[in-house]
Amino acid sequence: MPYQQSIDHCLKEHGGYGVSRTRIDALLATLALAVSALANGKDKAAAPLLALPSMTSDLAAIEALAAQIRRRFKTVVIAGFGGSGLSGRTLLGLSPFPQPAFHFLENIDPETFDPLLERLDLPSTCFIVVSKSGSTAETLAQFYILHEQVAEKLGHQAAAERFTVITLPGDNPLRQSAEKHGMTLLDHAPDIGGRFSVLTPVGLLPAAIAGLDIRALRAGAQEVVDTLRGAPADCPPAIGAALQYAFIEAGTPMTVMLPYSERLACFAAWFRQCWAESLGKEGRGSTPLRAMGATDQHSQLQLYLDGPRDKLFTLITLSRAGSGQRIPVPEREDLAYLRGKTMGDVLAAEQRATLETLVHNRCPVRLFALDKLEEKQLGALLMHVMLEIILTAGLLGVNAFDQPAVEDGKRRAREYLIKNDL
Prior knowledge:
The protein is of the alpha/beta class. It is built from 17 helices and ten strands. The protein has two domains: 4-40 and 217-404, Glucose-6-phosphate isomerase like protein, domain 1 (Rossmann fold, 3-Layer(aba) Sandwich); 51-215, Rossmann fold (3-Layer(aba) Sandwich), CATH 3.40.50.10490. Helix 15 links the parallel strand 9 and strand 10 (365-370). Helix 1 crosses helix 12 (236-249), helix 5 (83-92) packs parallel to helix 10 and helix 13 runs parallel beside helix 16 (375-396). The longest helix is centred in the C-terminal third of the chain and has 22 residues, at 375-396.
């Protein structure tokens, strides 16, 4: 496996502050049917998602379009909300300073949107607009403004060449405009929701433009899907789901994702959205929190260690010792502990110290350990989280794939705009 998961520090039998191994085993037995249904394609809602990792028929077209964009443009602007934008940002975490440069428009605040538009060199910029439904008001607002500006300054043909639209097949406002203006169109997978679309063209096109290996991303995800064919006790996402549910039923209302790699910062944000929108229903679920090591040792750790015991922690650690620049330490005795060390040595010590400090203070900690972080490892982590969410939803008795409460807010916003009640 591209990662190793350990829940020992969450189990009472191992001296952890948390739940019993007996309860985890009972929940894994409960999950046996659900795991089998996922493995055999009988869970119709999840089947399209689980078929993605083994699919290769769509990759050549994505790679060809990405190569064309990479040759022609210096800047890529991606407009999309929720998973439509966060999918690409999460994968680009592997390449923190990609060429071409990327900007993600994930809000409609004119105080940031307008200055960005003014700064863009439009002849060297292309735009990727993502909306599954093709009717998301925020994305349409961005799209119509962007297209008008580019068409006015460069002409309609040049504007068409600079836009790629990803949306559902059929008649929707975004697709209608893209077809009318002759823009490049990619179909959004109809049976995969936006927050689960990271391994579709929504996430893979930006990743490929940045030069990432999208085939390795899917291959890593497939390794996790393959674990569904064994017993639940040998399936890491099933173990994770059992653990999460056991803490929820024991009254732990929060789950913290704490990676010790800055390249996983957007992964933690993606986890937060996917977890919250999939499981927060009918008064059930838990609140996902995003933290970053070592940054949040200086902002959140005091609360974690000395505040209420209401959180389950997931630490993601990476082999760091010996990596990075060697630290040129002044000749001071009080800094002797840094002498001869690299920056990676310091981070290795910090991630180990945080784990041990949390455990010492009776905080339950699940650990993901990585030897390295490349496309294969990230693809595996992404699929683990998506399967863990689907299985946790089954234990909670909620639908992982809808978001009824969100739709109410969208309806109200449209009504205010129609009535001009702003």
